[in-house]
Design goal:
This protein has a five-stranded mixed beta sheet with strand order 1-2-3-5-4, with helices on one face. The protein has a two-stranded parallel ribbon with strand order 6-7. The chain contains seven helices and seven strands. α1 packs across α2. By secondary structure, the protein is α/β, with parallel strands linked by helices. β4 and β5 form a beta hairpin. The chain folds into two domains: 90 residues, Zincin-like (2-Layer Sandwich), CATH 3.30.2010; 123 residues, no CATH class.
């Protein structure tokens, strides 16, 4: 993968793009997003990922956090919401500095919640996820909580991946960022590298009693079953 040629560095935020004017336009926005995400997650230590604005032809690495060191958030030029992508991927990056890892589903939910808050669009994000959950039936929450990221797209339904992420979002929305961090601290105190997935099952039971898990499906909604 070839780095874009033009580099702008402001307050430790490095943006690479094809044209310096393009990098200059982006860097101020991303400095603010980085600060907001750090503050929300209580993380104040470097390194901050570099941000590369790429052409679509670079394919497999765009719109996600790469495995490079230092890490790189690769964005696709012309993507409809690169601010959301950056905030979401920064959340993944900084959560790794918490005292314990989260189940993938919960980590995805946290990243969506943090991205919504960082962009002052949490209510829109919340409504989108709860709309998905209103047409979802979760029959085996332990299975969902143990899904690795690569299995999200394997769920045999068009809405499957979105529904799994919405389950994670609802759990994080119930706990809050501070509550989630306390779970990580508790796991760390027990010498656990990751928060056990079964710790989240009671949380899901609490949020699943909301109207979006009612027995009668509103007319016109198609049920998605997550086994």
């Amino acid at each position: 993968m070839i780095a874009p040629p033009c580099v702008v560095d402001r307050d430790g935020i490095v943006v690479r793009a094809e044209y310096v004017e393009e990098a200059e336009r982006l860097v101020g926005d991303y400095v603010d997003l980085d600060r907001r995400v750090r503050d929300m997650l209580g993380v104040h230590s470097p390194p901050t990922p570099e941000i590369w604005l790429m052409e679509e032809e670079f394919g497999e690495t765009v719109n996600g956090l790469s495995g490079f060191t230092p890490p790189i958030v690769c964005l696709e030029r012309g993507h409809h919401d690169n601010r959301q992508v950056v905030a979401h991927e920064l959340s993944h990056h900084y959560q790794r500095r918490w005292p314990a890892r989260l189940p993938t589903v919960v980590d995805e939910g946290l990243a969506d919640l943090v991205a919504g808050m960082a962009r002052d669009q949490l209510e829109e994000v919340r409504e989108r996820h709860y709309h998905t959950l209103r047409r979802t039936r979760v029959q085996s929450i332990d299975h969902v909580l143990e899904l690795p990221a690569e299995d999200f797209e394997e769920i045999p339904h068009l809405w499957g991946s979105r529904a799994v992420r919405s389950v994670g979002f609802a759990i994080v929305d119930k706990l809050g960022v501070d509550g989630l961090l306390q779970m990580c601290q508790r796991a760390n105190a027990l010498d656990l590298d990751a928060v056990p997935s079964d710790w989240f099952e009671p949380v899901w039971s609490a949020v699943a009693s909301r109207s979006f898990q009612q027995k009668e499906i509103p007319p016109g909604l198609e049920v998605v079953t997550l086994l």
